[in-house]
Amino acid sequence: MKENDFIYESNQVVEGQVKWIAPSNIALVKYWGKKNVQLPENPSISFTLSNSITNTEVIYSLKKRKKEFVDFDYFFEGNPKKEFDIKIQLFFNRIQKYVPWIKNFYFKINSNNSFPHSSGIASSASFMASLSLCLMDIEKNIFPEMKLDYFNNKASFLSRLGSGSASRSIKGPICIWGSSPSLKNSNDYYAVELGRNIHDVFKSYRDTILIIDDKKKKISSSKGHDLMKNHPFSNQRIIQSNENFDSLIHILKTGDLESFIKIVELEALSLHALMMTSNPSYILIKPETLNAINKIVDFRETTKTPICFTLDAGPNLHLLYPENFSSKVLDFINSELKIHCKKGKFILDKVGDGARKI
Ligand code: PMV
C-alpha cells in the first residue's frame, strides 16, 4: 500500500465508545535514529509482550466546542495528565492527514497501565498502539467495509506517528518494522509480523524485567534519535543493524539460541555505546545495571542456561530465556539479582500475540 491509500473521509457516525488493550514490546534489533516523519534509519525486530499492557478507552461524539485542532481530554487512571496532552496533540496533528474525520469529533480518552506507575517502563508504545486501535475502530464504524489487514496495518501506521516502536505493538509474537532487502513485505511505514514460521522455542519465550531504576530518564528517546543525525558512527550503525537483522531472522527460524544470545546482547550494548559516543554523550545505564549484567553472564556460563539480557533506552534489564528454564531463572533472580533492583522490583512477562479489543 502507498501512503495516500491510508486516507478515508466521512462523518456519518455521531457518537460511541471503543476500548482496546495493547502490549508493550521489547526490541531485539533496535531502532535507533530516524528520518523524515518517524521513519526508521534501520529495520528492527521485537518480541511483543503479554502482561505489560495499556488499556485505553475512547468515548467520541460529534464536536460541539469550536476548535480548529482536534478536540480531546485525556485522563490517566482517572486523572488529567497535562504533560501527556502535548504528546497526544502532536500525534493528532501528525495523523490528521490520514484520518481527516477526527477533526469533526470530541474524544474523551481514558487509559491505564498494567505495570506500576513509576516502574521505568516506557508506556508510549503500548499507549500509542491502543489509542491508534481505538481510532481505527471508530474509522471502521464509519467505513464498515474495511478489511482486517487494512485495519491492522493502518493501526500500526498511525501508532508509528505517535512513537516509532509503537508500530510493533499491534501484532505478535514477533514484529518487524523498517524496510529490509531480505524481507519482502517489510517497509518503513508500518510493522509486519514475522509470521508463524518461527521456531517453537520463541513462541513462549520469557521476558523478566528487572527494575533497576524507576525515575524518568534525563534524555528522552526522541532526543537520542536526533543525536544519531550527526553521529560519527551512524553509517556503521546502519550496516551493523542490517547485518544483525538478517542474522536474527534466520536464528528465529532455526532456534539457534547461542547465536540469538550473541546478537541480542550485542544490539543492547551497541545501543548504549551509541548513546555514550554521541555529541553530547550521555549514559543511561546505572552501576546496578552492570552488576546485574556481570552476574547474568557468569550464571549463563556456569549453569549453561540460555539466558540473555537486553536493554531499551534506559537502565532496566530485560532477561530473555526459554519457558522451560523459568523456575531455574526465577531462583537465580530471587537469590542473586533482586538486590540490584529498585525496592526488589521485577516484572514477569512473556511473548504475546498482540493487541485485543475489549
Ligand atoms: O519508539 P521510540 O521513539 O520510543 O524509540 C524506541 C527506541 C528503543 O526502545 C531504544 C529501541 C526500539 O526499537 O524499541
Describe the 3D structure.
The protein has 358 residues and is α+β, with helices and mostly antiparallel strands. Helices cover 36% and strands 23% of the residues. The strands form three sheets. Strands 1, 4, 5, 6, 7, 8, 9 and 14 form an eight-stranded mixed sheet that branches. Strand 11 and strand 12 form a beta hairpin. The longest helix is centred in the C-terminal third of the chain and has 21 residues, at 234-254. Bound molecules: (3R)-3-hydroxy-3-methyl-5-(phosphonooxy)pentanoic acid (PMV). (3R)-3-hydroxy-3-methyl-5-(phosphonooxy)pentanoic acid is lined by residues 27, 30-32, 44, 124, 163-165, 221, 225, 271, 312-313.
Shape: globular
Largest sheet: 8 strands, mixed
Number of helices: 9
Runs in which pLDDT lies below 50 for 5 or more consecutive residues are: none
Report the bound ligands by name, code or SMILES: (3R)-3-hydroxy-3-methyl-5-(phosphonooxy)pentanoic acid
Query: Helical proportion?
Result: 25-40%
Cα-based radius of gyration, to the nearest Å = 20 Å
Structural class: alpha+beta
Mean of residue pLDDT values: 94
Strand portion: 15-25%
Helix and strand sequence: EEEEEEHEHHEEHEHHHHEEHEE
The overall strand count is 14
**Termini separation:** 28 Å
